[in-house]
Write a structure and sequence with these properties.
By secondary structure, the chain is mostly beta strands. The protein is built from no helices and eleven strands. The model has no long low-confidence stretch (mean pLDDT about 95).
């Protein structure tokens, strides 16, 4: 069974930064691509970024390209999302995902 646990969310002022972490446990987690998503109140869940299992391939949504960076440390079974230049509209619950597994989410609130 795979478990994903996000952390690092919180309250930050617009223009600030946060780094989210997603710790994975379970069989062979380091051999899967992983991704970050978010869901704001009243909106659908939105793809943000994905990273291949080696970390060599990355993909970003246009809304976060140039501001967010995804990375992973397979030795620690952890994926990160560095978020810079945060905007009020980045306020949402942020989730990490691997295949059909999801974490419980971590709240990010950006004050304007």
């Amino acid at each position: 069974q795979v478990q994903l646990v996000e952390s690092g969310g919180g309250l930050v002022q617009a223009g600030g930064s946060l780094r989210l972490s997603c710790a994975a446990s379970g069989r062979a987690v380091s051999t899967y691509a992983m991704g970050w998503f978010r869901q704001a109140p009243g909106k659908e869940r939105e793809f943000l970024a994905a990273i291949s299992w080696r970390g060599s391939d990355k993909d970003y949504a246009d809304s976060v390209k140039g501001r967010f960076t995804i990375s992973r440390d397979n030795a620690k079974y952890t994926v990160y999302l560095q978020m810079n230049s945060l905007k009020h509209e980045d306020t949402a619950v942020y989730y990490c995902a691997m295949t059909n597994y999801w974490g419980q989410g971590t709240q990010v609130t950006v004050s304007s």
